[in-house]
Amino acid sequence: MGKQALFITGMPGSGKSTVCTHLRSRGFEAHDLESLPDMFTMIDTRTGIAFQHFENDNPDDQQYAHWRCNIRPLVRLLSEQSTTTAFYCGIAANLEEICHLFNRNIVLQISDENLRAHLKKREGTSKIGHSEAGRNMVLSWRPWWNETIHTLNPIYVDANADPDKTVDTLLTKIHISRENM
Fold first, then answer.
1. How far apart are CA 60 and CA 37, in angstroms?
2. What is the number of alpha carbons within 13 Å of residue 118 lying toward its C-beta?
3. Domain count, the chain
4. 41-77 pLDDT per residue, tens
5. CA 171 distance to own-chain centroid
6. CA 120, 96, 175: angle at the middle one, nearest 5?
7. What span, in angstroms and rounded, lies between the C-alpha atoms of 80 and 152?
8. What is the domain extent for residue 163?
9. Which residues share a beta bridge with 10?
């Protein structure tokens, strides 16, 4: 059996990083892509180049920002996969460019109410959605998100439950056990 690279994505605040941590704690190879250096660049859509000083608090920055995954570092990371099955967690504005690099795409689905509650926990940080305006902006992306992700033919996982139950559901849906690691 060849290696399986599984991409877990979802809206900001849907629990991607938390699921990644829980998969690691169960012994799976799991990467939080958004925490890796040089994996992403925040692009200013007005200029097509990287922001010099992006601020999540600045509505203009948020309005014109695209969080783009850098393909070369991602391909390099995938080539270094050390186990039969590995999980790669993150979100990017260029999903259509990266999803084909994975064997399967998994989407964490979360209700607006729970998404808002998750994002509210970011208050006091600089993460996207840490303010009321930021939360409203993230929720305004839902139509774009639903339309974009649907075209990728993903496996959907309900992320409204606690993280352990979400991981159990995910592993059941993709038929993965510890023996497949």
1. 25
2. 24
3. 1
4. 999 999 999 998 888 777 778 788 889 999 999 999 9
5. 17
6. 75
7. 25
8. 4-37+85-175
9. 108
